[in-house]
Design goal:
Blueprint: H1 3-14, E1 17-24, E2 38-45, H2 53-63, H3 65-71, E3 74-80, H4 82-87
Parallel strand pairs: 2-3
Antiparallel strand pairs: 1-2
Length: 104
């Protein structure tokens, strides 16, 4: 199973997700082709209602403890309640370009 599949499965079972998107952004970085090291997660769940951004991220990081402790290098999290998502017509923000590892 791929790391991306593991992330998708853990989030789908650990959070009542109304929308879940996991994007492997490794190809935007100075890593070998086929790498699974950089991910962007967009997650909409009413489980986030009343939670601060840091507590939402802690919740996700707890679910993905194995991945963030060594399997992956970077994890961008974009977490929304259904009301926040409905107001956000542009989707999750784009990730900035990589400037490290010789790509600068």
């Amino acid at each position: 199973m791929s790391i991306q599949s593991d992330i998708e499965q853990k989030l789908a079972t650990g959070v009542n997700a109304l929308h879940l998107e996991v994007v492997n952004e490794s190809n935007n970085h100075n890593v070998p082709p086929g790498s699974e090291s950089h991910f962007k997660v967009t997650l909409v769940s009413d489980d986030f209602e009343g939670k601060t951004l840091i507590n939402r991220h802690r919740m996700i990081n707890t679910l993905l403890a194995e991945e963030v402790s060594g399997k992956i290098h970077a994890l961008a999290l974009h977490t929304y309640t259904s009301q926040e998502w409905a107001k956000n017509t542009n989707g999750a923000p784009l990730s900035p370009p990589c400037l490290g590892g010789g790509k600068g």
